[in-house]
Amino acid sequence: MLSPNQLLKKYFGYETFRPQQEEIIEKILSAADALVLMPTGGGKSLCFQIPALLLPGTAIVVSPLISLMKDQVDALRGNGISSAFYNSSQSFEEQQAILNACHHGEIKLLYISPEKLLSDTEIITKTCKISLFAIDEAHCVSAWGHDFRPEYTQMGFLRERYPNIPFIALTATADKLTRRDIIKQLKLKKPQVFITSFDRKNLSLEVKIGVKPKEKINEIIAFIQQRKNQSGIIYCLSRKKCEEAYEALQNNGINAMFYHAGMDAAARSSVQERFINDDLQVVCATIAFGMGIDKSNVRWVIHYNLPKNIEGYYQEIGRAGRDGLPSETILYYNYADLQLLNKFAGEGNMAEVNLEKLKRMQQYAEADSCRRKILLNYFSESPDQNCGNCDVCRDPRQHFDGTVTVQKALSAAARTGEKEGLSMLVDILRGSKRQEIISAGYDKIKTHGAGAEIPAFDWQRYLMQMLNLGILEMAYDENFALKITPSGKDILFGKKKIELTVLNSIKPIEKAQRNRQPKIVSDYEALFNHLRKVRRIFAEDENVPAYVIFSDATLDEMVREKPSTAEELLSISGVGEHKLFKYGDAFLNVIQGFSSSHDTKSTYQETLKMLRQNISIEEIAAIRNLAETTVYSHIAQLYLSGQVDSLSKYVNEDEINSVKEAVKIVGDTKIMKPIFEHLKETVPYHKIRMALAVLEKRG
Ligand code: ADP
Ligand code: ZN
């Protein structure tokens, strides 16, 4: 039997486990329960997929989202692992066929929704030999979580009914309350809790405070225009905002669409699908978007508005860069959003929890220390170094003695009876003479105009700092009036000094670059795009998302490593045996063709020189440390460029004719595998290559 490590390479093409994956797998294999907390993109799936391969029978994977199931099953099949999903969208016959296959031990993993598992428990447990239960998105069981699904709470009975089958619950939501709830509700048996670091180093973090709406959208457009081939998501607070943002992008020639709960299911899934298939560059979405997608090459995520809580924010930015490549995240934050969110949060029956969560979100957005540290602290981690990849680390904040500024603001609050909100206070400080101020008599108070030298916008930001510092407090239930806290009183009465953060000027994103010259496509991009095209052909052919063929990270490594043999290709992360067999030749061909037409002109001459000295191909390959196939491809190129007169030494007329006939049938693909297969593997690859060169020259 293969070890977990061997399976990792064979099926998934990865060299090493990520932190904790191996321990989790071992735990499951010892038939114990586990609760796995890992960030989005952290690699949770492998933790139950590998045990499923090793244990006899079928693993039942419970997942709340039907769209995600199909993609996961596609991805597994793409790696040569037999799996299926089972849900009510299928006909009775289909369902029967799947259960039948499980019964015969032909399905290693069965994906199922909680509703379906509950309604069909009897038949499923009768027909399948269950190897393990994996409960994905397990936080859905908790009413504390942000994504509560009542059906999840009913699954606890399974644990009692199947005491000897291991249970693994997985989630990207880590707060303690949810964690405890999951264990309790699912009745996990002495589970070992695995918490991997929530740090996603490849995501850059940036918060932009108080950008005005018009500038905001222009900035975003400029940002996207500089990232031509990169997919991204813009999260908006409301449906209306989604559509507005979409329209602005559309008007600027950006291939975008919107996505929100007001659309019908078909329209929504079409957007998802087009996005996954790289048909759509940008989606403007409410938070409803994303849970059901598993697209590894999302390069950036923008929050158009402040999110409700850190869990949601972290999960949303986590949708960027699942492939591990550098990805950008930007959060826009302004006072109006905060006010609106406060209103929402204060309404429900969980008002207290929600308001507290929003406060933490606000503190994050307002922070003037390393943002990643704050995020990780939230998830109970304490990194000891600043990250270097957030806006604060890149542009450290400075402080000044803000006592006088603060006193002015607090005095304005005090003299208006602590019943006014932020914008009124700003107007008083600035000395506005608008009607409301006159009629309330606020133009008579001592603080009126006391802060006229500070722009209104800066006052807003100072007041927000004061909220964050606990000097002021917002009374949600009194029209957002700002109240002075005890600590604020100490400052007001001169008992305490206070530091404020110097407001950094807000730099529009890369404005300076807006008029830059059209970029010359680098060799890297040229080959990458070429490989993307090949990937696309296979994806369309198999009707799966492109990343199911290979992720961007895998293509990236191919471009950098330029493998020239099957062995070298297999050593690329993400290339397993199944994929090597299916796609290896096509990708190798493109890479070799590229290498030969680009940076290796002189390498041909080297080969040519050796050929002229009558050195055999085996020897040339050995001496030059190249694959024989590479040497053959040099010869084919030398022939095409007229430096080698004839290939008759390597391929005869019969073989050329066979290849010619095969091409007629399988098409002129430049991919040799179909030809090889069509000829029932009777003509070796190097001869096919030679024959193709001859045919090309003959036209
Ligand atoms: P999650 O479910 O935690 O959000 P996934 O299981 O979808 O994350 O994994 C995210 C990505 O990381 C996938 O593309 C997956 O193939 C990849 N991945 C998982 N484990 C490894 C590993 N050990 N080495 C390299 N890539 C991995
Ligand atoms: Zn930082």
Automatic annotation (TrEMBL):
Alphabetical list of Pfam families matching this protein: DEAD, Helicase_C, HRDC, HTH_40, RecQ_Zn_bind, RQC
Cofactor: Zn(2+); Mg(2+)
Family that this chain belongs to: Belongs to the helicase family. RecQ subfamily.
Alphabetized InterPro entries for the sequence: DEAD/DEAH_box_helicase_dom (IPR011545), DNA_helicase_ATP-dep_RecQ (IPR004589), DNA_helicase_ATP-dep_RecQ_bac (IPR006293), Helicase_ATP-bd (IPR014001), Helicase_C-like (IPR001650), Helicase_HTH (IPR029491), HRDC-like_sf (IPR010997), HRDC_dom (IPR002121)
Alphabetized UniProt keyword annotations: ATP-binding, DNA damage, DNA recombination, DNA repair, DNA-binding, Helicase, Hydrolase, Isomerase, Metal-binding, Nucleotide-binding, Zinc
Residue ranges occupied by any HRDC domain in the UniProt entry: 521-601
Ranges of residues in domain Rhodanese: 212-271
Origin species: Pedobacter segetis
CDD domains found in the cross-reference section: DEXHc_RecQ, SF2_C_RecQ
Domain Helicase C-terminal, first and last residues per copy: 216-366
Record domain Helicase ATP-binding: where: 25-192
EC number(s) on file: 5.6.2.4
Protein name per Swiss-Prot or TrEMBL: DNA helicase RecQ
Reaction equation(s) it catalyzes: Couples ATP hydrolysis with the unwinding of duplex DNA by translocating in the 3'-5' direction
MF (Gene Ontology): DNA helicase activity; hydrolase activity
Coiled coil: none
Gene: recQ
